[in-house]
Design goal:
The two termini are 26 Å apart. α3 (89-113) runs antiparallel to α4. By secondary structure, this protein is mainly alpha-helical. It has four helices and no strands. 66% of the residues lie in helices and 0% in strands.
Length: 152
Amino acid sequence: MPSKLARGFALFMNWFDGICAPVCGLWMMASALFALPLSWNDWMPASILDPLPLPAFMKEDLFWAGLALLLVNGLPNVVALALRSRGRLAASYAWGIAAGALLISWTALELAFIPNGVSACYLALGALQLIASWHSRTALGRNGRAEGATPR
């Protein structure tokens, strides 16, 4: 995977999951707590969680699933973006590697109990994020910047 493509994809995944996971996670949590005009429950009932090996209270509504989405998928990508904005590329890519590994773990568990196409796509995205972030991190020069990059 060429370095520019890897860096671009790693950054895309940080932005994509860094925005979508917190928004969707908070929406799921709010849908569990409040009557919303457009509720997450309208198109994905909490009963979808029934096959998962979780305590019953975590499957009563989508609050815990939303919190997990926010913390597991959102937080690592937001941290990666924050580090990147401060010029700490190596640390940013390390968080991208963690984010990819967490996404792989999350979707593999989900697929084991709730087979579905959306999770299979996210499993592939997690693998690509991990690979792109790993490749980008290993391609960094000694100063923590991409080879040939000009200092700020």
